[in-house]
Design goal:
The protein is α+β, with helices and mostly antiparallel strands. It contains 15 helices and seven strands. It binds iron/sulfur cluster (2 copies) and FE2/S2 (inorganic) cluster (FES). One iron/sulfur cluster binds next to helix 5 and helix 7.
């Protein structure tokens, strides 16, 4: 069976092909063939100039991440036939949120620089000769150890798309691997740094990183654990932590989000004044009730009972 592969290509170094263009290749495919097998076949039989990365061919090295029919995935772990059944054709593009070097090869330097920022190795507790690591301790960081550095999560990250300075999910998942390790001696310092601008609080919780990670690392869960650990350490003098506190207070007080009050509590009085034009726009579009007539929901007692139960549980824990 012949399938059309439409591959987005460009070579910024070449005068002829520096603008992205789509090239079609007809490929004879068989059951069980992966996208990487098909790309290798194209390179062998039709066009040796087609560039892409690969190494292990077994979803281990993380080299072959690319966009396959609109989603960031590993070419060696994605079979052609199920894709064809779903989409009819094959559209292959480079990984999003990364600069293209040539065809499907992207610049991974920003990815490694972000990783470098989180100090990607254990810095043990001083003076502690031996620390006993129990199975449950390993479980707490287990998934974050499965990362193969493929970059699919960063490719799909909405926060990274709008701000390239954001530390992004792959580095945050790795950060939890060390913060959550019972042998780590600098967890507090790490959390302080991650709470800075462009750090963990920039995540907008779109869940894409968890959805598209091919190894089940669940970076968003790691981000939640990091945030929670920072708040337990009392690292709350930043917009993200203040926003989380304001949100919890708002739901407890009125049963829903009081956007105006939350803005004041998050940004402080002076910075909130700059948000007034935005607030008025929301008001005009019916997105925000007037702050002064913000009524609590009817069943507020039930909401508060949930809070009290959580506080009781926290007290026992
Ligand atoms: S959940 Fe957060 S870190 Fe993950 S992709 Fe969305 S914005 Fe990025
Ligand atoms: S967390 Fe998952 S998607 Fe992100 S780099 Fe690691 S393995 Fe790839
Ligand atoms: S070639 Fe190694 S993960 Fe695909």
């Amino acid at each position: 069976m012949k399938i059309k592969f439409r591959i987005k290509r460009c070579d910024p170094m070449s005068r002829e092909t520096c603008e992205p263009f789509v090239q079609g290749y007809d490929v004879e495919v068989t059951e069980g063939m992966t996208i990487l097998d098909a790309l290798l076949k194209i390179a062998d039989e039709q066009d040796p100039s087609l560039s892409f990365r690969k190494s292990c061919r077994s979803a281990i090295c993380g080299s072959c991440a690319m966009t396959i029919n609109g989603f960031s995935r590993l070419a060696c772990a994605t079979q052609v036939m199920p894709e064809v059944k779903k989409f009819g054709e094959m559209e292959i593009e480079p990984l999003p949120n990364h600069t293209v070097l040539k065809d499907l090869v992207v610049d991974m330097n920003p990815f490694w620089e972000k990783l470098e920022k989180i100090t990607p190795y254990l810095t043990p507790k001083e003076g502690a000769e031996k620390v006993c690591v129990l199975p449950e301790d390993l479980e707490a960081i287990g998934k974050s150890q499965q990362c193969i550095m493929c970059g699919c999560c960063n490719g799909e990250c909405n926060a990274l798309e709008i701000d390239k300075r954001y530390i992004a999910p792959a580095a945050l998942a790795k950060a939890w691997r060390f913060v959550g390790d019972v042998r780590e001696g600098n967890a507090r310092r790490r959390l302080d740094k991650l709470s800075d601008e462009h750090g963990m609080w920039d995540c907008v919780r779109c869940v894409h990183c968890t959805q598209y990670c091919p190894k089940g690392v669940a970076p968003l869960k790691a981000i939640e654990l990091l945030r929670s650990a920072a708040m337990k350490e009392g690292i709350t003098d930043n917009h993200g932590a203040k926003h989380a506190v304001a949100m919890a207070e708002s739901v407890k007080r009125v049963g829903r989000l009081d956007e105006a009050a939350m803005t004041f509590k998050t940004l402080g009085f002076l910075k909130s004044l700059g948000m007034i034009p935005f607030g008025l726009k929301m008001e005009l579009h019916g997105k925000m009730p007037l702050p002064l007539v913000f009524a609590q929901i009817n069943d507020i007692a039930e909401v508060r009972a949930i809070y009290e139960a959580c506080e009781r549980k926290k007290g026992k824990g």
